[in-house]
Amino acid sequence: MPETHIIDGKAIAAELTDDIARQTTAFTHENGAPPCLAVILVGDDAASAVYVRNKGRTAAKVGFRSIQETLPADVADERLTDLVKALDADDSVHGILVQLPLPAHIDEAKLLELISPEKDVDGFHPVNVGRLASGQTDGALTPCTPAGSVMLAKSYLGNDLSGIDAIVVGRSNIVGKPAAQLLLAENCTVTIAHSRTTDLKSKVLAADLVVAAVGRPEMIRGDWIKPGACVIDVGINRVGAPDLGAGKTRLVGDVAFAEAIGVAGAITPVPGGVGPMTIAMLMANTLKAAKAITTKSN
Predict the structure, then answer these.
(1) Are 104 and 149 found together in one domain?
(2) Residue 234 lies in a domain
(3) How many domains does the chain contain in total?
(4) Is the predicted pLDDT of residue 221 greater than 70, yes or no?
(5) CA distance 91 to 293
(6) Percent of the chain with pLDDT over 70
(7) Is residue 36 domain-shared with residue 104, that is, in the same domain?
(8) Domain assignment present for 296
(9) Within this chain, do residues 149 and 104 fall inside the same structural domain, yes or no?
(10) Is the per-residue pLDDT at 46 higher than 90?
(11) Residues 157 and 230 reside in one and the same domain
(12) Considering the chain, what is the average pLDDT of its residues?
């Protein structure tokens, strides 16, 4: 069997952000101000802090104005609500992102609905969810990780995914469901599976494209993969790595990479696969929002 192709998410994300930077230069020249992304971080979760920092760095790299609001974990609901409302009302802010997860006392769904669909660069507002579900992919701001996953699949399979048998393992509102909707829009035949699916192995084996987003370390084994299939591993799981020393950990995906690499036609690594694309797609959504808002106001 031919050697498995490793899909380089870092390189593809870099190409995308370079293009966004070029478009941002033109946008700023035409409108007198750059696109603006506001990110809200609540609490001191280490992983969330890293994500937010990386988003800020990439926003600066492509030429955006970036705002970061950091609030304590015990922030009053009213204070957080007032901040979101203020940013939403600010005409100079084009995209708003609330870093998830939020502390338990915050009503996540209620808070996200305060963001106008036009500024919802995470793609989580019910209006954007509904647009995606009804096939209005051009008008919707699409969740970044699923959109990036589809782009990575196209980098190997080509831009026309029509007729491909795809399976999405995972049914979350953030990744699984929107990934399935995007693949349907690409004319794939899509199966949505999850940890309780009966005989999951046989269903994965039948797929030409596997999107693994179940959140379980290395759940999908190498002998589950159809020879030559394209595997997009969305999972980011930290597991113990005693071979590296006492108390050490490593990141692994939802797919057993060492097993799948001898079977799959192409696969994304963890890290270095979907992760960089998520941030790049966030920048793409922010630029898209800025263009739409500016056109509407003019």
Answers:
(1) no
(2) yes
(3) 2
(4) yes
(5) 9
(6) 100
(7) yes
(8) no
(9) no
(10) no
(11) yes
(12) 94
Residue 40 has pLDDT above 70, yes or no: yes
Q: Residue 55's domain is classified under what CATH number?
A: 3.40.50.10860
Residue 279 to residue 111: CA distance in whole angstroms: 22
Cross-strand bridge partners of residue 6: 267
> What is the residue range of 106's domain?
32-116
Same domain, 157 and 105: no
Domain-embedded: residue 285: no
pLDDT per position as a tens digit, 99-120 = 998 999 999 999 999 999 999 9
User: Which residue has 């808070």 as its token pair?
Assistant: 111
Peptide bond into 271 cis (omega under 30): yes
Give the residue numbers annotated as catalytic, written as ranges.
55, 99, 122
149 neighbors 274 (Cβ within 8 angstroms): yes
> What mean pLDDT comes out for the span 270-286?
96
* Mean of pLDDT values over 144-161: 98
Q: Is the dihedral of CA 24, 25, 30, 31 positive or negative?
A: positive
How far is Cα 87 from Cα 111, in angstroms, rounded to an integer? 13
Q: Given this model, what pLDDT does residue 249 score?
A: 86
CATH code, 150: 3.40.50.720
CA distance 24 to 18: 10
Same domain, 97 and 157: no
Amino acid at position 65, single letter: R
Terminal C-alpha separation, the chain: 57
In what order do the strands lie in the sheet containing 65-71? Answer: 65-71, 36-42, 95-98
pLDDT at 52 over 80: yes
> Which residue did the predictor score with more confidence, 222 or 135?
222
Domain boundary among 98, 116, 134: 116
Q: Are residues 195 and 246 in the same domain?
A: yes
Residue type, 2: P
293, 118 Cβ separation under 8 angstroms: yes
Does residue 1 register a pLDDT over 70? no
Dist. CA 50–CA 256, nearest whole Å: 25
Q: Which of 200-204's residues contact partners 24+ apart within 8 Å by CB, and which partners? A: 200/169, 200/224, 203/167, 204/167, 204/169
